């Protein structure tokens, strides 16, 4: 099996990548979350979809923040950081942003108090995307996804 690093496109390394698919592994630390958002912006610009990059990066930011907060521990017992995966799939008129994490718990939108500093992530995803959802959670984890409308740059 090929060595799959944080910076590599594992689909390409395994021979299953396509022009409309890209994936990035991220950790729960601030640098990992920053690189995941930057990865999303760079991929969308490479695909000629900079018109939807702001909305997609907002969605990605919320999905990865939720994974970091609810599914990833900052460091595992062996000293390494736990990771999750961000996947982007280009479809006709849309980009699917998906985050796979190791938590078996389904996401639940919250209704925070007006002055609360957190708890609005899935409400933001719902407002910015055309649809969102979650795969059925299993012991090994789940995938939360959102569909962001896109039109190619002219």
Task: Offer a concise description of the structure.
By secondary structure, the protein is of the alpha+beta class. The protein has helices spanning 10-13, 30-46, 53-70, 121-128, and strands spanning 21-27, 83-91, 94-101, 131-134, 142-149.
List the helices and strands and how they pair.
Blueprint: H1 10-13, E1 21-27, H2 30-46, H3 53-70, E2 83-91, E3 94-101, H4 121-128, E4 131-134, E5 142-149
Helix pairs in contact: 2-3, 3-4
Keywords:
154 residues; alpha+beta; 5-stranded antiparallel β-sheet; 5 strands
Describe this protein's structure.
The chain has 154 residues and is an alpha+beta fold. 31% of the residues lie in helices and 23% in strands. The protein has four helices and five strands. The chain has a five-stranded antiparallel β-sheet with strand order 1-2-3-5-4, with helices on one face. A hairpin with a 7-residue loop joins strand 4 and strand 5 (142-149). The longest helix has 18 residues, at 53-70. The chain is globular.
């Amino acid at each position: 099996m090929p060595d799959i690093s944080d910076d590599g496109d594992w689909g390409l390394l395994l021979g299953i990548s396509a022009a409309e698919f890209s994936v990035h592994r991220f950790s729960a630390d601030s640098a990992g979350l920053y690189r995941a958002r930057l990865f999303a912006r760079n991929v969308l610009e490479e695909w000629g979809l900079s018109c939807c990059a702001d909305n997609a990066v907002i969605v990605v930011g919320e999905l990865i923040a939720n994974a970091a907060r609810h599914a990833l521990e900052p460091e595992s017992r062996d000293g390494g950081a736990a990771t999750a995966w961000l996947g982007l799939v280009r479809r006709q008129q849309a980009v699917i942003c998906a985050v796979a994490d190791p938590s078996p718990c389904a996401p639940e939108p919250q209704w925070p108090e007006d002055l609360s500093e957190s708890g609005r992530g899935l409400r933001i995803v719902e407002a910015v995307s055309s649809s969102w959802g979650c795969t059925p959670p299993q012991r090994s984890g789940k995938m939360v996804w959102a569909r962001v409308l896109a039109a190619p740059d002219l």
